[in-house]
């Protein structure tokens, strides 16, 4: 089973500079490590956005079905929840 694959990419000079800078500081051991970390961040962001899309769709469906609350009630619930 292959766990990694070599990939050749072309990046703008500024991106290459940033990658090399990160490696040069010792924060990362290789260019590949910097890129893998960046991709993991991108993947986490995509997952968060997908989760938000689902929540928004659920909220829209609730509103369309008449499942709503007065804004004053919601504000009071939020205030109680977030106040120390």
What topology does this entry show?
Blueprint: H1 13-24, H2 31-64, H3 71-82
Strand-pairing-aware structural class: mainly alpha
Q: How large is the count of helical segments?
A: 3
- Low-confidence runs of at least 5 consecutive residues: none
Order of helices and strands: HHH
The radius of gyration is 22 Å
Mean pLDDT: 96
Fraction in helix: 55-70%
- Main beta sheet strand tally, sense and closure: none
Number of domains: 1
Spatial separation of the terminal alpha carbons: 52 Å
Number of strands: 0
Description:
This protein is mainly alpha-helical. The chain has one domain. Helix content is 69%, strand content 0%. The chain has 3 helices and no strands. It has helices at 13-24, 31-64, 71-82. The longest helix has 34 residues, at 31-64. It is elongated and about 55 Å long. The model has no long low-confidence stretch (mean pLDDT 96).
Structure characteristics:
mainly alpha; 3 helices; 84 residues; 0% strand; single chain
Condensed summary:
Helices cover 69% and strands 0% of the residues. With 84 residues, it is mainly alpha-helical. The mean pLDDT is 96.
